[in-house]
Every structure is written in structure tokens, then in C-alpha cells.
Amino acid sequence: MLQSTRERRGAGVKRKGESAPGRGVASRLPAPCLLALLALGLCSLSSCDGKNLRPPEVASNLPALPRETPFPITISPPPPAPRVLIETPTGEAAVRCGTCHRGRPSNRETRASSDLDEFHFGLVYTHGEQTCISCHEPGGYDRLRLADGTGIEFSEVMQLCRQCHGTTASDYDAGAHGGFTGHWDLQSGPRQRNHCVHCHDPHSPTFPLMKPTFRPKDRFLDESYLDEIQHDARHPEEGKGR
């Protein structure tokens, strides 16, 4: 039997108390209940411990946290107490300085290589106005001495250097002087520093002056360099050896 026009129109009219078509249970829940359900869903994903809120593939790419204790800085030990090679009936032997110096008085006026008239021929000695016993302990030379007369071992030679070279020592402590191997960033790895006597000869510590053979050339800013290139192209025989 066919429905009347009024009945068909009335089928689509919402009656009081009925829900709209297409809406589920969530639309009839209060807002606090929806927030509670959302929180439970997040907890199920993160185990509710707050530690796994990031996906594993993202967390693994995060930078490592700084170390609580940085890697150490170590200074390479200096060479041991020096030995002198002498000729013996059975061949060469390495002896300590005191082997000869204990039996003879110290020359307190030795200040240059030209003053070495009996021993240590060929030793280059240029250390300001310092004499041998300014640094060596007199009466044996097997130890060093500070300015106040305190004797120290050769392994503590850096204390001796610091007495006169305070500014350089401060630069060394700040990392601006002296070579090293390892890492600038101590969070990444350790650093091994050179000792004073690894670079400087204690008897002649000053590096020789060097004169640059030619200045650097900037082919984009230095027009004279471009002129030289063009000149060499026109006169290749003159450009050889530059």
C-alpha cells in the first residue's frame, strides 16, 4: 500500500528525544568523559610512564646528552734525565751528568757555547743570560733547581720553565700555546698535550726566525696575479720557475 505524502514527509522529521541520524554515542557524552577517554588512549600508547612519548625512530636520532665529567687532558711526560755517551774500553756507554760533574766544581760563568772549552763540544747553548747552574743543580747536574734553590727532578722541568716564561705558561694553560692531539671538544674525546721540551730545546729554546718566500695569492682579488697569468701566457719562457 502506498504511503501518503504526509507520512513520507513525517518520516524525515526529528521527533523530540531522538538523536540525529549518523551520530554515535560520543556525541551524547559530556566533555569531561571525552577528555578522560582521550587520556586513557594516550596512556595506552605511552605505557603511562612519560618515557616513551616519542616514537623510537625519533628518539634514537636525538643528540647525546653532555657527559657529567668531560674527557681528561693529559700532558705527555718529558724525556728522562739526560745521558752522555762516552767511549770506554768496551765501547760506548751512556752515563749520568753527575758521573763527571760530581768530581769537579761547577763553572758559574758558563753562558754560551763558546764557554764550553772542555766538554759538550757541539752543544748549542743560547738561553739569554742564564748560566748552566741557573737551571742545573750544582754539584751533580743530575737534578734541576728552582730560583729559590729547591731541587727538582727532570720530570718536573715545567715548573722551572714557568719561573721566567709566565706569560707563555698562561697561554699554555688556556690552550693557546703548545701542540696537542685529540679533541678540541672534551665531550667528544680526550686531549693529549705536548710538554715544553717536546718542542723547545732547553739549551736553545727560541725558534729561529723564518722569512716567507712569497706572499699568498688570491686569484679573485689580486689583479697583479691576473697580470702575471696573462704575461706568462704571452711569454711562457719567462714564466718558468715561478
Question: Distance between termini?
Answer: 112 Å
Overall geometry comes to: flat
Biggest beta sheet summary = 3 strands, mixed
Strand-pairing-aware structural class: alpha+beta
Q: Which regions are unreliable across 5 or more consecutive residues at pLDDT < 50?
A: 1-6, 8-22
Radius of gyration: 42 Å
- Average pLDDT: 75
Helix amount, in percent? 25-40%
Largest sheet, spatial ordering of strands: 1-7-6
Q: Approximately how much beta-strand content do the residues carry?
A: 5-15%
In DSSP terms (H or I, runs of 4 or more residues), the helix count works out at: 9
Tell how many strands the DSSP assignment holds. Answer: 7
Order of helices and strands: HHHEEEHEEHHEEHHH
Short structural summary:
By secondary structure, the chain is of the alpha+beta class. The protein has 9 helices and 7 strands; from the N terminus they run αααβββαββααββααα. A 3-stranded mixed β-sheet has the order 1-7-6, with no helix packed on it. A two-stranded antiparallel sheet has the order 2-3.
Account of the 3D structure:
This protein is α+β, with helices and mostly antiparallel strands and 242 residues long. The chain has a domain at 73-199. The chain has helices spanning 5-11, 31-46, 56-59, 98-101, 157-164, 166-173, 196-199, 223-234, 236-239; strands at residues 73-75, 83-88, 91-96, 144-145, 151-152, 180-182, 191-193. A hairpin with a 2-residue loop joins strand 2 and strand 3. The radius of gyration is 42 Å and the shape is flat. Mean pLDDT is 75; it is low at 1-6 and 8-22.
